[in-house]
Design a protein that fits this description.
Radius of gyration: 24 Å
Number of domains: 3
CATH superfamily of the largest domain: Electron Transport, Fmn-binding Protein, Chain A
Helix content: 25-40%
CATH topology of the largest domain: Pnp Oxidase, Chain A
Strand content: 25-35%
CATH class of the largest domain: Mainly Beta
Shape: extended
Mean pLDDT: 90
Strand order of the largest sheet: 2-1-5-6-7-4-3
CATH architecture of the largest domain: Roll
Order of helices and strands: HHHEEEEHEEHEH
Largest sheet: 7 strands, antiparallel
Length: 206
């Protein structure tokens, strides 16, 4: 690849960009180096705050598969400037992602923070590790009762952050729950006050 962004902008993609008028603008970013190829402080901070992401793999037939991965904020661990890893807990035992990675190591991570309308795309390779006790211990979550079966280790080849356009706002339960609880408490308090006023009015009428 001449540019790191060529991992996504194949000749077919560039042909469509040219036909639809965006190729010249994108070419300017390519001259500046294309996509970033290692983590920077901003992306590190973003990743450490995420509690979910999507992992894309494909099998030898080219059939894609996307898997949702979730955990406590920061469960996607940063090993170094070009390596991410996470624990794989016991689940539905289909092992589609693990099997796909036996076919091809190419993988893709899609990070989405709906609350701030930000998305990050990460291209790379991924491998499954099940014989490294130290790594599995490093990736485990003491507050989560699930059993760690294996680790996924992702090597970053390129990444890019999208604009926030068209991203619907959604907020995690932990952020919304205190607000809803406060509203519920306020409503109950108002109900009690209203009942007191109604009782007082009844007495005045008598």
């Amino acid at each position: 690849m001449k540019y790191s962004s060529d991992i996504a902008f194949t000749p077919a993609v560039k042909s469509i960009q040219s036909a639809l008028g965006s190729r010249a603008t994108i070419a300017k970013s390519e001259v500046k180096g294309g996509f970033k190829t290692s983590l920077n402080p901003a992306l590190i901070q973003f990743i450490e705050g995420q509690d979910m992401f999507y992992l894309a793999t494909s099998n030898h037939r080219g059939q894609p598969y996307i898997q949702y991965k979730g955990g406590a904020p920061g469960f996607l661990k940063i090993i170094d400037s070009q390596t991410l890893a996470w624990a794989d807990f016991t689940g539905n035992r289909q092992y589609i992602s693990a099997g796909n990675l036996e076919d091809t190591e190419k993988a893709f991570i899609f990070l989405m923070d709906y609350s701030v309308s930000r998305r990050v795309k990460i291209w790379g390779t991924c491998r499954v590790v099940d014989d490294d006790p130290a790594l599995l211990a490093q990736l485990s979550d003491r507050e989560y009762p699930g059993s760690v079966e294996r680790a996924f280790v992702f090597t970053i080849k390129a990444w890019d952050a999208n604009c926030p356009q068209h991203i619907h706002k959604r907020f995690p339960e932990k952020a919304v729950a205190p607000i809803l609880q406060e509203m519920a408490t306020t409503i109950e308090d108002l109900k009690i006050r209203l009942a007191m006023y109604e009782s007082a009015d009844d007495l005045h009428e008598e």
